[in-house]
Prior knowledge:
With 401 residues, this protein is α/β, with parallel strands linked by helices. Helix content is 45%, strand content 22%. The chain is built from 14 helices and 18 strands.
Amino acid sequence: MDKIKMVTPLVEMDGDEMTRILWQIIKEELLLPFIDLKTEYYDLGLEHRNETDDKVTADSAEATKKYGVAVKCATITPNADRMTEYSLKEMWKSPNGTIRSILDGTVFRAPIVVKGIEPCVRNWEKPITIARHAYGDIYKNVEIKVPGAGKAELVYTAADGTVTKETIHEFKGEGILQGVHNTDASIASFARACFNYALDTKQDLWFGAKDTISKKYDHNFKDIFQAIYDAEYKEKFETAGIEYFYSLIDDIVARVMKAKGGFIWACKNYDGDVMSDMVSSAFGSLAMMTSVLVSPTGVYEYEAAHGTVQRHYYKHLKGEETSTNSVATIFAWTGALRKRGELDESKELVEFADKLEKATLSTIEAGKMTKDLALITSLKDVTVLNSADFIREIRKTYEAM
């Protein structure tokens, strides 16, 4: 059988620990036998990031701008323990954060729905995609541990020296203080990414904030979204038969719990961080969740929503058998290959991605799965497979289709 040809390379970002092991097995078993795979490879493993003073991360993001599509393996964001374990020069920043910043991207996360893994919320029938504004708020905050009585003020000094002040609180004793910010440019990029992704996937877009309480900060999000929608997207949404809907965040949460799914839920940074884990857990597992970073200019970077599976990696190093779920990593590859095929007008590449996803889900629905899924499935008499055998079983299913 002739291998499927690729016109334009993908940017391939390798990663760390157990997901790095799975990455190679996926390529060997599910990709290279069927595709003449073309990638521009970047090693984002922590050791190589350390060797390059993290330049490799920025280089991979710039390459993604060039080629338009990337696929990324899970990576370590180091803490103090990792500093010692890997003898790091410094505590390097999150690769995802660096890439998001360079691409000015928004993260879209959606659960992978499969028969036999039923959502905890019984009325959810279709995936709910979380769009997280991955900039600002508490993730770029400044904090003070207030030692005692005193006045806290919010101060803005304009370029011309003009000062604007607001009293935050008159402290009578010890307390805490936090300052957060955002920018109109970042919010506008977030809005356009959400509107474009909704059009791309033909899904309704919901957005919620607390503008009744936060009359300037949250209200600014609401106003920017509405202005951009009215000026640039209203007619496109009407033509596509989809809806943009804004409400207070608490109302949105209530509606989400009663909905059937099949829409995009746009969230501010903290809300998106929390709600993506809630949605993934309610649908079954973080290992069954896709993640795609989309820039307002139409650049895409696909990855799994989970981390490097450190515990399984340490077992692997000891020679012990693991049963690590590779579905989200497989779907990162299929998502990137499908988008590459769409952009290059390669029907064969798009069909391959669709078929591989179907083979993956069919393998699970046939009762062959990793241990994490076996613990939550409603299917009876399932077969628990180890990490490599699960991937090989998917290949068998694919070849039999």
